[in-house]
Specification:
single chain; 311 residues; mainly alpha; MetI-like fold; 67% helix
């Protein structure tokens, strides 16, 4: 459950070269050429014809659908206790078995998908928004402003991602909004570093020079010329951030700094069931499998988007 090793060494502040961590973080975004706007739904067709991307898309869509209709699908309440049926093995009555309080694990995994997806999508979107804003300003204006902004991003990246999240949550509490803001801040410098490299390539294009000659404002050039032509890398980076948000959210839940009981948070379920690994392993195994499958799906989707958006 610990993601600090992959995230904290994602990019050394003094090293601008890309590398290839477990989830293929930097290459996925950087492989999408700058200055290639998305055209219609052609990229979606390419995504669907690329088997890993299609599998990832189906997994993510499946979990989104399960989260939306979790209450209708779940056979039991997520918090309903039955002390006469504690730690029962998987059966026809309880597909994933029951936990130490007799709660149905299948229902808790289904209903818990809403929290993890809400957290993942919200924090990934926030990190993308913050990081892109910094990257646009730093990459376009350059000079001293670029140096100041990127050194600030380097300072944030010098903290291991999970440690920085722990510091923020220990200070402000573990409410859902705090979790979203916390993970968004963790993602901001990483997104900024990737998107800034794209902006540096786009700002020297002829259409940007033409807009400058016409006397358009910096804001107009950023919004109308640069940002639309950086959509490809943004989409890929967003998918990558989604997979990391799931991992960090689950890790925080496992450490007790995520959503608190009786929430059916997946990381929290794995943590609560770890003392029963020898006698009732299903208590932890099924939530852990849900985390792993959703992360794999998001990562496959990111790889598929990279393939689909390549010119």
């Amino acid at each position: 459950m610990n993601t600090s090793s992959s995230e904290s060494h994602e990019l050394h502040p003094a090293d601008m070269a890309s590398h290839t961590p477990l989830l293929h973080e930097r290459p996925a975004a950087s492989a999408v050429s700058a200055g290639q706007p998305l055209r219609g739904v052609a990229w979606f067709g390419r995504l669907c014809r690329y088997p890993p991307g299609l599998i990832g898309l189906l997994i993510v869509v499946l979990y989104v659908c399960l989260a939306l209709f979790a209450e209708a699908i779940a056979p039991y309440s997520a918090s309903e206790q039955d002390l006469t049926a504690t730690l029962q093995a998987p059966s026809a009555a309880h597909w994933f078995g029951t936990d130490q309080y007799g709660r149905d694990i299948f229902s808790r995994v289904l209903i818990g998908s809403r929290d993890i997806l809400l957290l993942a999508f919200s924090s990934a979107a926030l990190g993308l928004l913050l990081g892109t804003s910094v990257a646009l300003v730093a990459g376009y204006y350059g000079g001293t402003l670029d140096e100041l902004l990127m050194r600030a991003m380097d300072m944030l990246m010098s903290f291991p991602a999970l440690l920085l999240a722990l510091l923020i949550l220990a200070t402000f509490g573990s409410a859902l909004l705090n979790l979203v803001v916390c993970i968004g801040i963790v993602f901001m410098p990483r997104v900024a570093r990737v998107i800034r490299s794209v902006v540096l390539k786009i700002r020297v294009q002829d259409y940007v020079t033409a807009a400058q000659v016409r006397g358009e404002s910096g804001y107009s050039i950023l919004v109308r010329e640069i940002l639309p032509n950086a959509r490809g890398p943004l989409v890929v980076e967003g998918a990558i951030r989604l997979s990391y948000a799931i991992l960090i959210g689950a890790s925080l839940g496992f450490l007790g700094l995520g959503l608190q009981p009786p929430s059916p948070d997946w990381g929290l379920q794995v943590s609560e069931g770890r003392i029963f690994l020898l006698t009732a392993p299903w208590v932890s195994v099924f939530p852990a499998l849900a985390i792993a499958s959703l992360v794999i799906g998001a990562n496959l989707l990111a790889d598929g988007l990279m393939h689909a958006l390549q010119p």
